[in-house]
Every structure is written in C-alpha cells, then in structure tokens.
Amino acid sequence: MSLIYLDFNRTTPVAPSVIESMQSFWSTHFMLPSQSHVHASAVSEAIETAREGVSMLLGCDPFEVVFTSGGTEANNLGVLGAAMLCHAGGEPHELVPSYPCNRDVPPPHALVAEIEDDAVICAAKHLQHLGWKVDFVPCDSQGVVSVEDFESRFELTTRLVCLQLANPILGTIQPIRELADRCHNHGIRVHCDATAAVGRLPMDVNQLRVDTLALSAHKFYGPKGCGALFVRRGLDLHPISYGESREMGLRAGSENVPGIVGLGAAASLTARCVDEAQATLEELCDRLVTGLRSTLDGQITVLSENANRLPNTVTVEMGCEARRIQKAARQLVVARAMSESPPDEFTRVLRSIGRTDRQIGRTLRFSVGWTTSREQIDRAVDLIAEACECASP
To answer: Which reaction equation describes what this protein catalyses (predicted)?
Structure first.
C-alpha cells in the first residue's frame, strides 16, 4: 500500500541531488572550516558556495545570509536579536534592560500578527517577560492581516513588526511589502517568517523590503536541522547564543557543514524550479478541490478561498471529523488539529479566523509538492470519499 503524501507544508523529502551534494561532508570533508588545514579550506569554500546559493534564491548578497539550525532559530534571532539592540529611549545600540519599567522611559513596543508561527509568537511573549509592550494583531475571516490595522497601532515607541509572508495552515499570502513600506516610514524594523513560502513562491528580499527574513531547509527539499536568516546590509543584530563565535558573530558553535551544504544545494535547485512548479502545484490543488466537491456532493468548505494563497495549499472543512478520515484513510498523509488545550498552531490559526472547535475538528489541510502526481490526487479523493462514507457526521 503506497503512501500518498500531501503534507509538504510540514516537511519535504530531501531531493536526490541535495543528498548527493552532502555525501562527502559526512566523511571525506569532515573537518570544520576553522581548522588550519587544506582540507578545512575546502570545507570553508563549500560553506561560502552554499551561502551564494541561498543569496541567489533570495536575491540578496551572500554576506547578508546567516546560517542557523533551522527556521525556529532564524525567527528567534530575527526577533530577539533585533529587540536586544533597540528600546524606546536612548541610543539604538543600547541593550534592552530586563526591567524597562524601572527606567524613566516607556517600554519599547512590538506588533506581531496573531497568526504567526509558534517560534515568532513565543519569541514575542519572551519580549513581554523582558518588559516590552507587545500587541498581537488579528486577521480577517480569510486569514489576511490589514495593513491599515497594523498602521493604526503604531506608537512612538514601536520598534519592531513581525509578519509572515504566507501562512502554512491557510496558505494565505500577506501584504508584507506594503506593510514594510509603512513601517520604514516610521523607522520600524520588519521581521518576516518566510518558511512556508520558500519553494512555493519566488523570493526577492529587495521587493519585499523586509529587514530580516527566516527560512528552513526542510521546507524546500533540503535537510532538517539547517536554516538561514537574511539580515539586510548595515542592520545590527545581537547574538542570542554564546560561545565560539561564528556567522559574522551572530551565532555560536561549530557549523553543521553537511546541513549547510544541503541547504545551499536545495536553494539553488529551488531558484531554478520554483517558477515552473507554481502552475503545476496550482493545477493539482484545483484538481483536488474539484474532485472533493464532485465526489462529496459539494459538502465541503474551502477556507480562505477568496484570498491570495500559496499555489500548493488547500484547507478544507469536511462533513465529518478529520481524525476519523485519517483513521480510515491510513495511506493518506494530511494535516489536522491535534490539540485544543493548549491549542496547537493549527487550532490557534483557525480560531483566529472565527472557526469553532467543532469546525476545526472537521478540517484538513492538504499541501502538495513537486513529487505529487495527478494519480495521487485522484486516489486521495477516492480515499476521502470512502472514509467519509464510513464516518458519521
């Protein structure tokens, strides 16, 4: 019984060419770039080649790319690293004190979209523990934030805004460029989590105009355990980990050389293929929705259907419980809510657009990828139809 994998927003398989690029760095070229040997020089060159691959994907300079252990660390560095270098009063290079309330200046202020990734939400809550004022900005019923709503919340002490490029649960694409323009008009930094968008949309940080941008290799056919943060030229960040300094002084510890090489290879592959892949991904999603509506007599609701969405993502409320569909269609891998209390990210995002817990319990997210075929989509529709027949509403 072959697996039908439709959860590419969660993680992707490593591309064969990426695996091949990493092989020699597990054994032959096992040294670290800081070692004083000719073989270490070869490792250092491979890391810089990977940096160039990521810069080509993002449309930036190689020295604006900082390698991390993944999207979570990249988001934490983008949020906390910026926050440690700015506050509402004094010089911009002065560190944020642990208790700003003890000073004669108001606390610095941050705005964070309510539907951000857990890594960004948790980093923002940590800022609150440090004394920052943090407002979480809601989205509309389609899962899209309002630039006007964000701007109406700007204060004289606002120093940081966080908005993802695309939401991985709903697929909704956010108006990051317009918001970044308005933020910069007020001297506010903008951090963007792009982990859900890389590999699905073309990237150009100069068009987006963000200050920092996070990505994760395993979201676009690279290895787990490696990511990167784009840091715009001239922007200061403070490290959030301490030890032997690496990556332009922004992170500590030995480099994950095979992971970095794999990330670079995946970035180069994605840069070449993403434009062509978009139309195919969109066609597969349309085929899935058409098939479900036809087979299930229209008894489904496509969430955020009228919003601009990622070409590979469809989130659907079914006519019966999602967990029962998953149980009946065991060869089908899709995403659903797993926890109501405390809410997981799936539940939290759907609640933010006004879905009830009963509706959330009936919702599945389908995300297709480069290896998804039309035959797999058709088989998935059949499996879901059979599962819905067996499951009571």
So the answer is: (sulfur carrier)-H + L-cysteine = (sulfur carrier)-SH + L-alanine
Residues of the chain within CATH 3.90.1150.10 domain(s) are 4-11+275-390
Q: Residue 251 pairs with which residues in a beta bridge?
A: 246
Q: How far is CA 300 from the centre of its chain?
A: 27
pLDDT of 340 reads 83
Residue 246 has pLDDT above 60, yes or no: yes
* CA–CA gap between residue 19 and residue 266 (Å, rounded): 9
Assigned fold of 16-269: Aspartate Aminotransferase; domain 2 (3.40.640)
pLDDT above 70 covers what percent of the chain? 94
- Decide: 88 and 159 in contact? Cβ < 8 Å: yes
Question: What architecture (CATH level 2) is domain 4-11+275-390?
Answer: Alpha-Beta Complex (3.90)
Residue 3 CB neighbour total at 10 angstroms: 10
The secondary structure of residue 96, as a DSSP letter, is: P
The first and second tokens of residue 17, run together, are 């060419």
Given pLDDT bands bounded at 50, 70 and 90, which one contains residue 37?
confident
pTM of the predicted protein model:
0.93
Q: Give span(s): CATH 3.40.640.10, the chain.
A: 16-269
Instruction: Return the closest-CA partner of residue 241 out of 35, 74, 373.
Output: 74
